[in-house]
From TrEMBL:
Transmembrane segments: none
Protein name: GTP:AMP phosphotransferase, mitochondrial
Sequence positions that bind GTP: 23-28, 167, 176-177, 242
InterPro entries noted in UniProt: Adenylat/UMP-CMP_kin, Adenylat_kinase_CS, Adenylate_kinase_lid-dom, AK3/Ak4_mitochondrial, P-loop_NTPase
Reaction catalysis annotation: a ribonucleoside 5'-triphosphate + AMP = a ribonucleoside 5'-diphosphate + ADP
Residues covered by the Adenylate kinase active site lid domain: 167-202
Amino acid sequence: MTLATASRKLKRAARIILVGAPGVGKGTQSERLMKRFPQLCTIATGDLLRENVKNKTPLGQHAETYMHSGGLVPDPVILNLILNELSSRKWLETYDSTENIIAALGRGNGSASSVARASNSPDTSFILDGFPRTATQAQALSYLLPINLVLQLVSPVEVILSRLANRWIHLSSGRVYNVGFNDPKVAGIDDLTGEKLVQREDDSEATWRKRLAKFDETSRDLLEFYRARDKNMVVTVQGNSSDEISPQIFAEVEKRFGM
Ligand code: AMP
């Protein structure tokens, strides 16, 4: 193993948010970060939601219509999902019922000390992917636990658009393949299930340009929320490819949380 790929240990809990447009490579960076820092794990709200939809849980049934229409799932549903995930991993001690906590977060009058307490062990380190998406969600999350690094991933729009044109999806799991850099083993077929891959019907360039613009708009408030809390919290990393971005984020995590 060369030094460049050797895994590293963390000395304190890293609670990281990845903010980046669809197609910028958040999934790739999460996987690379987990390899580099094995104490990290990813919590992706999109994956948790799809799992609930697949298992036909009440939460999944509620979320499904919003997901299919391409809209955002209502905040109380997402907060419930995150709260359950963090407390079932025993990373968060809560002092009230889930219903009361969600209601308090919705009213915006929670506080970290009254609602929950987060563990500081480095083994409770995580990367959130897909949450929080809005400043309101970030505010509610802040009552549960303190995020300590926001990584903003940026690539030029033209680079993202050409990447999205080559993107194939396994619909039921949400697994994404990219022609040319993470191809499926058999073209057009999902590696794990053997089912067919699809390109989203609404994957036209004009639709993607609109989605990217919408993302810019919502993420601006989200980043502003974190910058206002601590100007050193948000780190912007730019690159034309995942390989250009990874070394920069490795260095940042190492500097802040490494041994
Ligand atoms: P993703 O895999 O992150 O693209 O998420 C898939 C879908 O799940 C989104 O289009 C939303 O409908 C829903 N979703 C995921 N995360 C959130 C969130 N933080 N807030 C609201 N809806 C979400």
